[in-house]
Amino acid sequence: MTVSQLPEPVPTSTDALIVGAGPIGLFQVFELGLLGLKAHVVDSLAQAGGQCTELYPDKPIYDIPAVPVCTGRELTDRLLEQIAPFHAGLHFGQEVSRLERQANGRFLVGTSTGSLFDAGVVIIAAGVGAFQARKRDAKGAAELEGRFVHYRVSDPKSFADKDLVICGGGDSALDWALALADKARSIVLVHRRPEFRAAPASVAKLHALQAEGRADLLIGNVQELDTNGGVLAGVRVLCGDGLTRRIAADQVLVFFGLHPKLGPVAEWGLALERKALKVDTARFETSVPGVFAVGDINTYPGKKKLILSGFHEAALAAFAAKEFLSPGQKVHLQYTTTSPIMHRRLGLDGAGDTAAA
Ligand SMILES: Cc1cc2nc3c(=O)[nH]c(=O)nc-3n(C[C@H](O)[C@H](O)[C@H](O)COP(=O)(O)OP(=O)(O)OC[C@H]3O[C@@H](n4cnc5c(N)ncnc54)[C@H](O)[C@@H]3O)c2cc1C
After folding, report:
1. What torsion do the CA atoms of 183, 184, 187, 189 make, to the nearest 10 degrees?
2. Do residues 59 and 73 touch, judged by C-beta distance below 8 A?
């Protein structure tokens, strides 16, 4: 049986499928949970937090209500702690690529790694889009991607005893060069200029490894990848002095940062305005009933791309999602301070709750 003939997996059934695990997607889990709705969250990144962890993990944020200051990473950690009682399924490293309405009115949602979800509602919290690795445009790189050219490390053990070339000058490039220095047979870091964006402490450690002869640094750009019988043999680097040097390499790791791509979200037939999803401000529903959009991905008159605005949108979208899933049923507002139902759902009496009220 070829791969294309394999039957589709049985979809995971859920009340809500959330596209994006940025701060707003995470808080959406909380607001849905308070209303007794279960959620699964999918993100193309390897971890939660969206822009907060990807773009400014250590920078302070000063405008989260009642939190005078916290970093992007701290905000993400606190949100993960806050949603823990609701046991949402978190699925990282996969892009939501498919969204279809089924005959029964529910949604079939598919991801780039083949996961399938059968969701009552879909809430898009996709921010500025799915973050994608910037690719190396060196000759031969595209054909070797996945086997000999990598944009992320999923299994560090696979680089043991290999001749590695690591490209980039940011934290990821330096962190992996340092982490793999003891495992690899050789490491050459190739960076286009002598200055690094990475943390100064990491740069100092790299220079120390270089002085000990355990890593090499080459200032230049990888121009071409050489193969022998379809297997990577080496890379050609155009160096700052104008000379091209050839380095033996078994594997190439590239860390040129990430860029957001609206991607599949733009292809689902939802009304768009300047690359953002149009929503109403009472329900935060898109032009397709049952599909909601919250956070940086949406637009409406007066929209401000702020985390606190997204939190408000998530609260109203949760109420609208509940009404959509239980038509005709009144959804009561209850306070977390005093409501026994809220306490049960928050797991405060140790019982947890899966029943809808
Ligand atoms: C440097 C900087 C500083 C900032 N400082 C502040 C501040 O001080 N205060 C403030 O309020 N705001 C600040 N912001 C803005 C704030 O970070 C954003 O408003 C916030 O991150 C939006 O959250 P979000 O969850 O909507 O989207 P994002 O944080 O962008 O998260 C969206 C997630 O969706 C994922 N995704 C997208 N499409 C798909 C798909 N098809 N499949 C799977 N996953 C997908 C992405 O990978 C991403 O992880 C700052 C932004 C930057 C860049």
Report:
1. -70
2. no
- Which of 62, 291, 307, 313 is the pocket-test mutation for ligand 1 (most atoms within 8 Å of CB)? 307
Q: Decide if 88 contacts 39 (C-beta within 8 A).
A: yes
How many other C-beta atoms are found inside a 10 Å radius of the C-beta of residue 351? 9
> 298 is written with which tokens?
């949406």
Kindly state if the Cβ of 25 falls inside 6 Å of ligand 1: yes
Cβ(237)–Cβ(138) under 8 Å? no
The 8 Å CB, 24+ separation contacts for 101-109 are 101/288, 101/290, 105/290, 107/17, 107/290, 107/291, 108/11, 109/17, 109/19, 109/42
- Side-chain-facing half-sphere of 104: CA atoms under 13 Å: 8
Q: Is the CB of 29 under 6 A from ligand 1?
A: no
Whole-angstrom distance, CA of residue 199 vs CA of residue 241: 26
Q: In 3-state terms, what secondary structure has residue 75?
A: helix
The pLDDT value given to residue 105: 95
16-64 pLDDT, tens digit each: 999 999 999 999 999 999 999 999 999 998 899 999 998 888 889 999 9
Backbone angles phi, psi at 227, to 5 degrees: -120, 160
CA 259 to CA 264: how far, in whole Å? 15
Alpha-carbon distances of 125 from 225, 261, 306, rounded to whole Å: 38, 14, 13
